[in-house]
Amino acid sequence: MSYENIQVVQNDLIYTITINRPSQLNALNKATIEELHHALNAANTNDTVGAVILTGAGEKAFVAGADIKEFAHFNIDQGKSLSATGHKILFDFIEKMNKPVIAAINGFALGGGLELAMASHIRLASDNAKLGLPEVSLGVIPGYGGTQRLAQLVGRGKAFEMIATAGMISAEEAQSWGLVNHVVPAAELIPLAEKIASKIVKNSPNAISGAMRAVNANYETGVNGYETEINEFGKCFGSKEFVEGTTAFMEKRKANFRD
To answer: Fewest CB atoms less than 10 Å from the CB: which of 69, 187, 222, 237?
Structure first.
């Protein structure tokens, strides 16, 4: 499939998606959300993909929010549908993928952009990044998981402050709050994402996907994360990757999980 709003490049086992609307600061419109879903689903079902890097084109923005002109005239039902569809095909979809998604935040990550980063599994930021959820300044609230994931990541108090003030925080503040894992100069952002992805893809794909399901279970209502861990741990013992991993350890060699 050819894309109008994103660019996709696969280099060995690393699959990089770049949101490519720099003149709109990579704002998320309906078409971009649909294209992201298609590309992410392709990565998720492709055995030659081990990790995904998600970033924005240009130096100014990762994603500077949603495309407001698309929904400024919506009524209540249309607003609910907009949020529900976004959750289903993009934000929840990323969180539940079996391939790790690394958000490389270059510049502004606001509104839907920060929500996109928070749905990802690992977040890196350039030192010029600014992060925030400014929705209340428009008379609306974060609708793509922001009220839930931000509180999970930084705690309720800080989440309330960020949402209610509609303010932005620096990359350094985001790191101190636990919102991003690393902060580096802009020129080092993608190389760092690729370095982390390269470490990930050396490990067992089956074990990584099981671990991701176990971690996510802790945040699912009515789900016992410990039970999920037990089940995912047990399932590993029935895999060829477990045999390869343990055999390689005993033979004092590096495991090869991809052949």
So the answer is: 222
| Residues with catalytic roles | 115, 135
Question: In whole angstroms, what separates CA 163 from the centre of its chain?
Answer: 20
d(CA 13, CA 56): 20
Each residue's pLDDT tens digit, 229-258 = 999 999 999 999 999 999 999 999 999 998
Which tens digits make up the pLDDT trace of 21-77? 999 999 999 999 999 999 999 999 999 999 999 999 998 999 999 888 888 899 999
What's CA 155's distance to the chain center, in Å? 19
Q: Which two tokens stand for residue 173?
A: 């503040």
Q: What is the DSSP string of 144-208?
A: SSHHHHHHHHH-HHHHHHHHHHT-EEEHHHHHHHTS-SEEE-HHHHHHHHHHHHHHHTTS-HHHH
Q: Work out whether strand 14-19 and strand 108-110 pair parallel, antiparallel, or are unpaired.
A: unpaired
CA distance 20 to 32: 9
Domain ranges of the chain: 6-200, 205-250
Structurally, at CATH architecture level, domain 6-200 sits in: Alpha-Beta Complex (3.90)
Who contacts 203 (Cβ-Cβ below 8 Å, separation ≥6)? 257
Q: Measured between alpha carbons, how far is 66 from 242 in angstroms, rounded to an integer?
A: 43
